[in-house]
Every structure is written in structure tokens, then in C-alpha cells.
Amino acid sequence: MAEMTEIRWHGRGGQGTVTAAKVLADACLSGGRHVQAFPEYGPERAGAPLRAYNRVSSKELRMHCPVLNPDVVTVVDATLLDSINIAEGAKENTIYIINTTRDPKEIRQKIGAAAAQKVITVDATKIAIDCFGRAMPNSPMLGALCKATGLITLEHLLEDVKKSFGKKFSQKVIDGNLEATRRGYEEVREG
């Protein structure tokens, strides 16, 4: 993994996108790395498109601006593929992680991904519904991101999901999110 990894998240309000960026930052921080996690909201309401960002580095971070040239683009809501350019500023080796039932090859074509760019899909919404009965795809998306990037180990991520969710949720919800994170990791498809 590079000295610094920049991640741009695309989601809609109410899907847990900002929470996912914070959980990832906590997991990387407890792994001894320097991190940033911050959201960028348009209209602050459920369903409104939003972006969140992470920077993960082995060195101190001095930049404080949105991620313009992401190493990883994570799309929590595939309907955004029709309304925004998720590939904006992407590098030649950017990794795309998309929450969709569609085949990665189909998504690759839709977003016009270059040959050196990885396109990974995972049905995070279905996993979330299976695991804890709500269409909150953030936990499975974290699992998929963990698998696609190798930024942190799955065990480390699960530990931090437990810590983050343990403050505000019942054991049943925590267990569901842990299972969803694990399944997101295991069920990624690459094309």
C-alpha cells in the first residue's frame, strides 16, 4: 500500500456513509496510522447525495481539503452512478467499490474504468438486510473496502466496528453489523 491512501465515499444521507468513513479512520488510527475522516454535505437531509473522505498515511497528515484524486472510490448507493461522475479525478490505478447487484464488468463499462483500474462490486444492501434487517449498507461496504485495499486486516476492522457500534447499539445490532462486515469482505466480486 502507498505511503498515503485517499478514499472518496459517495452515498446518500441516512445510509451510514459518514459513519463508515469514521469507523475506517478509527480502525486505521488504532493500527498506528495517521488518518482523516470528514464529510461534505449538500442539503443535509435523508436521501441527499453526500461525499465523505478518508486519508490514511504512515506520516503526519498536513492536508485539509477534499480528496480530489482518490486511490479508492466507494459508492454506497449505485443510483448515484446515473447522476454524478464518480470517476472525477480518479488515478490510473484507482479502485472502485460499488454497492450493486450488477456484475463488475457491467459497472466497469458504465463508468468507463481504465484497464488498470479495479472495479469491485458487492451487494451490500442485501447483506445488511440479511444480517440486521435494515438497508444500511455501510458495514458490508467497510468489509469490501478492507478486502479490496488491504489497508487493515478484517480482524482489526471487526474490532473497531464492535467498538464504534458498541457505544450506541444493542448486542443484536452489533452482532448483525459484525456479520455484515464479514460478509462484505467475503462477497466482493471483481471484474
CATH class: Alpha Beta
Strand arrangement across the biggest beta sheet: 2-3-1-4-5-6-7
Low-pLDDT runs of 5+ residues are none
How far the N terminus sits from the C terminus, by CA atoms, comes to: 21 Å
Specify the overall morphology: globular
Helical percentage: 25-40%
Average per-residue pLDDT, rounded, comes to 93
**CATH homologous superfamily caption:** Pyruvate-ferredoxin oxidoreductase, PFOR, domain III
Quick one: biggest sheet? 7 strands, mixed
CATH fold field value:
Pyruvate-ferredoxin Oxidoreductase, domain 3
How many beta-strand elements?
7
How does CATH name the architecture?
A: 3-Layer(aba) Sandwich
Count of helices?
Answer: 6
Proportion of residues in β-strands = 15-25%
Q: What sequence of helices (H) and strands (E) makes up the elements? A: EHEEEEHEHHHHE
**C-alpha-based Rg, rounded:** 15 Å
Could you say which structural class the secondary elements and strand pairing correspond to? alpha/beta
What number of domains? 1
List the helices and strands and how they pair.
Blueprint: E1 4-12, H1 17-30, E2 34-41, E3 49-57, E4 72-75, E5 95-99, H2 104-111, E6 118-122, H3 124-132, H4 138-149, H5 154-166, H6 171-186, E7 189-190
Parallel strand pairs: 1-4, 4-5, 5-6
Antiparallel strand pairs: 1-3, 2-3, 6-7
Helix pairs in contact: 1-4, 1-5, 3-4, 3-6, 4-6, 5-6
Task: Give a written overview of the molecule.
The protein is α/β, with parallel strands linked by helices. The protein has one domain (4-190): Pyruvate-ferredoxin oxidoreductase, PFOR, domain III (Pyruvate-ferredoxin Oxidoreductase, domain 3, 3-Layer(aba) Sandwich). It is 38% helix and 22% strand. It has helices spanning 17-30, 104-111, 124-132, 138-149, 154-166, 171-186, and strands at 4-12, 34-41, 49-57, 72-75, 95-99, 118-122, 189-190. A 7-stranded mixed β-sheet has the order 2-3-1-4-5-6-7, sandwiched between helices. Helix 2 links the parallel strand 5 (95-99) and strand 6.
